[in-house]
Amino acid sequence: MKKFIRSKFLIPISDKIGRATRIKDGYVLFEGEKILEVGAFNEELGRNLLERYPNHIEVVGNNNKTARSLDDFIRLEGVLLPGFIKAHGHDHESPLIGIVKDAPLTEWLDGAVNIFGKFMQENQKQLADTLGIRPHLATYLKARVDDIYYGITSSMVHHCNYNKYYVGDIVEANEIAGTNMIVAVGSQDRHYYDAILDSPQDAVKRLDENVERFGKLTRTRVVPGPDQFFSNGPDLLKALKGWADKNSSLIHIHSSEEFNTTEWFKKEYGMTPVEYGMKLGFLGPNTVLAHQVQCTKRDLEILKDTQTKIVHNPLANTILGSGIPPVIEMLESGIDVVISTDGSGSADSQNILAAARLASQYQKAFHQNARLMPAQKIMEMITIEPAKLLGINAGSLECGKDADMVFMDTTRPNLTPSKINNVLENLIWASDGSEARYVIAGGKVVKDNYQFTTLDMSKVNEQVQQLSEMFEDYREEQLKLKGTGAHC
Ligand SMILES: [Zn+2]
Fold this sequence. Notes:
By secondary structure, this protein is α/β, with parallel strands linked by helices. It is 40% helix and 20% strand. It has a single domain (1-108, 146-453), classed as TIM Barrel (Alpha-Beta Barrel), CATH 3.20.20.140. Helix 4 (135-149) runs parallel beside helix 5. The termini are far apart. Bound molecules: zinc ion (ZN). The site of zinc ion has 7 residues, from loops. Residues 88, 90, 158, 254, 290, 342-343 line the site of zinc ion (ZN).
């Protein structure tokens, strides 16, 4: 059975027809996981589709009814785009919204993220009994709800700290949700709880085992994701980069996220984290750094020369008071930069359109130049650009790409009036992110007229609410002890 969706506006963001092309009354035909056709709809085309595929096309937005006449190809009032791609996030943070706010990064890590990881690890059995589900799986499923809610169909999840032991659970959550995921499996050999420190052999073995287990999946990929330069010493980083090069894989890490850790590198090694990464041979076209907020001129040169990629997370960087990376200078020097949300704990939301808006708004104000980072460019930085950076066959609506798309309802008051010449701008500047009415991932309608089809949203929310309440008591006890001094 083929599937069809028709929309008042269609923005394919495709290099084949020009990224800025906007189509009035557009349609997409898809089958299985792939897109078959994209273009402008008209009656002749509709008749032609009915002739070619009699009783063989289901219409999204028309109760998935089988098309038998032209009238069945109803046109939805809104805009159809490629599904959004989140290049850096942490699904394990989904229960951590609103905890330790108005505090800097290390205080937030010590008071929320690190304690939460320990809480989950120590209380697994009791939590599973109470919740009726493995607690890690519950948090990962909640993150899938959050992504689909905002129209995100692909993500690279940085699976840090204790979560490295739960790759099976996150893969299961992704497979249930139907989204596309790269799991960057964490590691650390210093500056963290002793119990989870790795040797290089441990970390490499973990990757090999997970690739062995999940390597055949088409919508989930496993790559190395050492937590951050601060918590990963030279031997471990070299071993993981070696693994990535040998397996033609990406490698992902946090870099220069906040001032104090960057300063620590200068004192300890006499170099910046980027210089440290370069010295170890860790940088390169397959290396993706999250943040890179503190960035010297020399760092920019190194990043450019090594073709290292950057994921900018403005929500987290501003909420935690970390600063903002020199995005304009990075783009001008030819460094690939994309925009993401980071985890729910630091960003407090997976609204990727809000992240894109903030990225642009900050640079316009900082440089006193309204022309910088226009809506078209930042929309590309959450679709086609991260698709290229991460090697994902999506981010554009064109024949042969994965059928990953989002339909945004433009009849909402905040998006009215929308026209062909301002609809993309409205999404960036006026949407609240919740207008994602249909979300299609790998050809599956995972959000159908605002209803989740692969996930039980109410149940998932209820479980995570309960988990969060149990965590609160534990957290208060732990905080009476002392800070962990650890960083994720
Ligand atoms: Zn992060």
